Amino acid sequence: xxxxxxxxxxxxxxxxxxxxxxxxxxxxxxxxxxxxxxxxxxxxxxxxxxxxxxxxxxxxxxxxxxxxxxxxxxxxxxxxxxxxxxxxxxxxxxxxxxxxxxxxxxxxxxxxxxxxxxxxxxxxxxxxxxxxxxxxxxxxxxxxxxxxxxxxxxxxxxxxxxxxxxxxxxxxxxxxxxxxxxxxxxxxxxxxxxxxxxxxxxxxxxxxxxxxxxxxxxxxxxxxxxxxxxxxxxxxxxxxxxxxxxxxxxxxxxxxxxxxxxxx
Length: 264
Known about the structure:
The chain is α+β, with helices and mostly antiparallel strands. It has nine helices and nine strands.
């Protein structure tokens, strides 16, 4: 089921997020080290990351390659505000992207109060390139420092999707891994294309493997989690690539996202 998200302006966006206080320890960056290493092992494409101090709403640390992705230097990024980041998106997308961030923050809070922590949020939008053009990106903030149901700090990963041809790209998708559910949200005025391709018949075991792949696990890790052999995992992946007419694991995961295979 696709749902709509209404746009908001910068004033509404800032009023929502600029209400946190307190201080973080000087070494709070260490909290995100494992997340950075995991992102290096499995990614949908070229990516960069930055860490936001949620108590002052400023970017305080970035990946070394950040200058390859936007027209700004690393020095421009350091200490920059939320307005700087939002302005990287296409002018037609900004109000919707801000609304999606606020919406997902509220949903995350609701899930936390229900005791659900195994939740993923994917944000999509058009972000400026180093050359001043715009391309589609995927934004994820998988790890956050949360206290009293407030996000004190978070790491944000930006994946370049320009090398993918993905239909039915939503504004936001929310993945509840505990209940194996995915919800898709779009702009109130966004016309989503219909996918002509027939969905392949995916078995329950293949679905389990796709889910773990989408979470970033490799074949040995999947084999261990599902108590099956490495060769069995590879055979399932091979069958999935044949069913989806994809050539690599990255293409398979992209196909899974665009065709909602995890909610079959």
